[in-house]
Amino acid sequence: LHLVALNLPFSGDMRADFQCFQQAQLAGLTTTYRAFLSSHLQDLATVVRKTDRHNLPIVNLKGEMLFKNWECIFNGNGGEFNIHVPIYSFDGRNVMTDPSWPQKVIWHGSTANGIRLVSNYCEAWHTAGLAAMGQASPLKMGKLLDQKAYSCSNQFIVLCIENSFVSDPQG
Questions:
Q1: Confidence of residue 170 (pLDDT cuts 50, 70, 90)
Q2: What secondary structure, in 3-state letters, does 19-57 show?
Q3: Distances, alpha carbon 82 to alpha carbons 62, 136, 148, 157, in Å
Q4: What is the CATH number of domain 1-165?
Q5: What is the pTM of this model?
Q6: How far apart are CA 67 and CA 64, in angstroms?
Q7: Is 112 in contact with 76 (CB distance < 8 Å)?
Q8: Distance of CA 114 to the CA centre of its chain
Q9: Which one of 15, 26, 83, 151 is at 20 to 30 Å from 136 when CA atoms are compared?
Q10: Domain map of the chain by residue range?
Q11: Could you tell me which Gene3D superfamilies the record lists for this protein (predicted)?
Q12: pLDDT digit string, tens, across residues 35-66
């Protein structure tokens, strides 16, 4: 399953699932992508289908492994990953080095176990208000689920996860 960033940073007021879907389509990707965010309807840990959580690696846009599987992200260690494996945007830029993302922080709105934090998810990702807070993680710490709260007015990286794997029947 591919983990890919949106092509621009976003404040806490975003239509992230729609953005993930649209940018994946524009990039020529045929599978479904969902935002790597907890929402008012769903905890982050359950965004990927149950059947795909254990047996599929989580890779970047170029197929380099970030996590052994989806479950590894939520084992309580904050989603530790190798910071030398780049995370790319849908248009192929490395979010860790590209200046389009001045703050190397990702929104997630979750606990370290992928459960939604209703006090810290920018009012279900509908506000960029200075006083509202959202849970996010500085990528330079090598964790996707570090537990830091930021004002929803910040423009941070939004990740998308491929949430349905379809094997090629010709394969």
A1: very low
A2: HHHHHHHHCCCCCCEEECCCCCCCCHHHCCCHHHCCCCC
A3: 15, 18, 20, 18
A4: 3.10.100.10
A5: 0.94
A6: 9
A7: yes
A8: 11
A9: 26
A10: 1-165
A11: Mannose-Binding Protein A, subunit A (3.10.100.10)
A12: 999 998 899 999 999 999 999 999 999 999 99
